[in-house]
Amino acid sequence: MVATILKLYGMSVSTCTQKVVMALNEKNIPFEFININVLKKEQKTPEHVARHPFGKIPVLELEDGTLIFESLAIVRYIDAIRPTIGARLIPSSPKAAAHVDQWTYQSSYNFYPAAQQIIVETAIKPVARLPSDPAVLADGRKKLIPTLDIYEVLLGKQEFFAGDEFTLADLAHLPYFNVMMSTQSDLFDGRANLEAWFLRCTARESWGMVKAFVENAPKCH
């Protein structure tokens, strides 16, 4: 059992921060949120670099002062300390865990780069009051479409990425799809299975709590 409040350093609109917040909510773990405004380069201050040597977010500080960075590493820790509460994000079966890992890890090169390219142009730059580049956006969309087609076929066979249960593989994708559903919803046109997956994931109470967290957190300026 977690003895005291964990501290999460991040930014509410950060997709990686949202992964951790959803996992904490899924496992019913209370936490203190410390806002790190990346638009003001607060992640590059000496104080924060002492927490994360690469000057990024999020970072989870445990009750004994231990620091964990990288969102997926943090989520794995959260699942490990409360495996029986909420969704089992990493299954106990080695075979099932491998299926979760394969769909989580492949996203780092087949999904994330193109998705992040889209998100920077459609969500991050407007908040930072920077001009978007239509050519970069178009390139990101072009790169992402083959992966979305593969996901569409997969999710026509099962409800979630690694089977019929919500896992880390779904959580790792969800915040990015949430942004793209708001800014580039036409990417879901003709992809009913992917859209149904999105609706199943966003219907979870833990995601509803993420939405409330974003609405109530300090605003980005």
Question: What's the helix and strand layout?
Answer:
Blueprint (H helix, E strand, L loop, with lengths): L5 E5 L4 H12 L4 E5 L10 H4 L9 E3 L5 E3 L1 H11 L12 H17 L1 H16 L6 H21 L13 H16 L8 H11 L2 H12 L5
Parallel strand pairs: 1-2
Antiparallel strand pairs: 1-3, 3-4
Mean pLDDT: 94
Q: Give the count of structural domains.
A: 2
The second-level CATH architecture of the largest domain is Up-down Bundle
CATH class type of the largest domain: Mainly Alpha
What is the CA–CA distance across the termini?
A: 37 Å
List low-confidence stretches: none
Give the CATH topology of the largest domain. Glutathione S-transferase Yfyf (Class Pi), Chain A, domain 2
Domain GST N-terminal: 4-86
Protein name: glutathione transferase
Domain GST C-terminal: 93-221
Catalytic activity: RX + glutathione = an S-substituted glutathione + a halide anion + H(+)
Q: Which features characterize this protein?
A:
single chain; 221 residues; alpha+beta; Glutaredoxin; Glutathione S-transferase Yfyf (Class Pi), Chain A, domain 2; 2 domains; four-stranded mixed sheet; 9 helices; 7% strand; Glutathione-S-Trfase_C_sf; glutathione transferase; Glutathione-S-Trfase_C-like; transferase
Gist?
Helix content is 54%, strand content 7%.
